Amino acid sequence: MNAPAKIHAKAPAKGHAIRPRANGRPWTFYVLAGLFALYLIALYGPMFSIYILSFQDLKGGLVFPMRGFSLHWFEELFYQTRTGDFSGSFRRSIGLAVLVTIITVVFSFMAGLAFRKRFWGDTFVFYLMIGSLVAPGLVLGIGIGLAFTMMGLQASWYTSALGAQLSWTLPFGILVMFAVMSRFNNDWEEAARDLGASAAQRIWMVVLPILAPGLVAVALFGFTLSYDEFARTLQTAGPLNTLPLEIWSMTLNVTSPSLYALGTVSTVVSFLIIGISLGSIALIQRQRAAAARSGE
Amino acid sequence: MKITRNAAGWLNVAPLLAILIPFFIVPICVILAVSFMQTDGFGGIFPDFTLDNYIGVFTSELTYRLYYETFKFTLLTLFFTAIIGFWIAYFLVFHVRSKILAMGLFLVCTVPFWTSNIIRMISWIPLLGKEGLINTGLEGAGVIDQPLTFLLFSPFSVVVAYVHQLTIFMIVPIFNSLSRIDKRLVEAALDAGASRFDILRLIILPMSKSGIALGAIFVVSIVMGDFFVVKVMSGGGTASVVGAFYEDVSVLQYPTAAASAIILTVVVMLLVAAILRVVDIRKEISL
Predict the structure, then answer these.
(1) Count of alpha carbons within 13 Å of A210, Cβ hemisphere only?
(2) H, E, C per residue of A35-65
(3) What sign has the CA pseudo-torsion B233, B234, B239, B241?
């Protein structure tokens, strides 16, 4: 029984697990490739249709066909206040997302370090975190709003909304951190200890550099989850809106393509952040590969 | 000075707790307290203990209808996201031969997750609407002569929007569990004479169970806690548990809203706990 399995053990290196009987692809490949293509079309198609529709001119409506081509709806977004406070909410959303990102990366990293070893009460903290992740966002938001009112505090985007968003981005960041740390080999840290590194040196010179790409991923999650957060922010943002709240109020009363223009601008920012994050992860890994080659 | 392992652990989770206590535990406790209080109907809340709010919620026929609607959407979304998510992950892991290509395609699937849900949702409007792309296309092709009205602002469009947003929550954990299946196991089963269907049924499906469970936790908690997608995509025609809660809050019926919020939170936590019995999430994510 062992021998044939051993012979085939070489094959998986090429990645052919489910080997067709003939030398081609199994029929399921074509069916699933079709499904995958359909999924991608359904995933991206609608998004791109609103980007396209946001470039219509004055006659433009909410549906196809495209009427004219201009930047009219973008201009309206930036220069007119009729559709709401776009630039203010945009600035607040970016500021809030930056704050959330920094706190999420630092706190998730620390919690990730803690959860590497078992400690008394770790299961309790873990399930507390899961509870915070799955709790209905709007309920939590209203609870935070009520708690602030009871304590006589004014809700604002940089206090209550910041905390509300962290109650959702931190568990997420820590879950990502777990996935990242599961690939970390504890022997590396042991080796540093044997060579006489202090606890701070081990974190700073061994753990952090190795986990850097993972921390970029945590930052990506922190930023984008905050930047697009809606349910927890709705009742905690105070008198000034964030961008998703602005979009929400527009979906209820604006029926012009300026809604789509706002969607386009907001998504451009998301794509920039995704590009920067994935790009820097790729860069770190390329440098590592280069360093490994030259070290050989 | 030597720090004990327990102290080091608690020191490292202290910042996390500094957020979770004021922004998760305290608000839940506040809502719990308010749910036992009375109101004058104008936003004033009095700390007189009463169970009326809970009695009111449990005896209202509306509550059961709302839960029926919300459970229906949860189950439908769970069904479609699990099926689509499983086959997408299966395709990427077992059918794409190049590892780099598989990773690239996986990233392509995840990119929209990092963009706004609201925008992805409204982006269905130009497609599904009465004068939308699908209706004009079908009319142009002569398949229909009346626009299909069930496409937008209907339960159909609600499910479409949920599946569109949440399938990624299935793909990622299932992809993760499938990637961990030792391919030699599959080879051995093939050599031992198993059909490809047997392999799927006896090896791959059982081993992807934990990934599906993990995805289900996200899908259930998000759909149960949502009111936004239902409100916009149903065109106001369908209510949801959280939607009704939000209406109560906006007319300042805080105690009633609090009681239904506590019931909802308990229901969601019980569902998640039930799923957690299937999968040891901690073992699952930390390998």
Answers:
(1) 16
(2) HHHHHHHHHHHHHHHHHHHCCCCCCCCCCCC
(3) negative
A25: in domain: no
Please, what sign has the CA dihedral across residues B123, A234, A79, A96? negative
Inter-chain residue contact A45 with B164, CB threshold 8 Å? no
**CA nearest to A145 within chain B:** B27
Residue of B34, B90, B127 lying closest to A49 (CB–CB): B127
Q: Is residue A61 domain-resident?
A: no
Interface probe, candidates B21, B101, B115, chain A, greatest A C-beta count within 10 A: B115
Report pLDDT digits (tens) over B215-271: 999 999 999 988 888 888 888 777 888 988 888 888 888 888 999 999 999 999 999
A window 69-98, beta carbon within 8 A of B:
none
Instruction: Quick: pLDDT tens for B110-168.
Output: 888 888 888 888 888 888 887 788 888 888 888 888 888 888 888 899 999 999 999 99
Q: Which domain holds residue A256?
A: 86-295
CATH number for position A166: 1.10.3720.10
* Nearest Cα to Cα of residue A216 among A281, A165, A166: A281
Q: How many domains does chain A have?
A: 1
- Mutation target among A6, A8, A14, A18 for the B interface, most CBs of B within 10 A: A18
Q: In this complex, how many residue pairs, one in chain A and one in chain B, have their CB atoms less than 8 Å apart? A: 297
- Domains of chain B by range and CATH? 60-285 (1.10.3720.10)
Q: For the residues of A88-155, what is the DSSP string, one character each?
A: HHHHHHHHHHHHHHHHHHHHHHHHHHHHHS--TTHHHHHHHHHHHHHS-HHHHHHHHHHHHHHTTPPP
Is A52 inside a domain boundary? no
Check CB contact of A220 with chain B, cutoff 8 Å: yes
Q: Return the residue matching tokens 């609608």.
A: A46
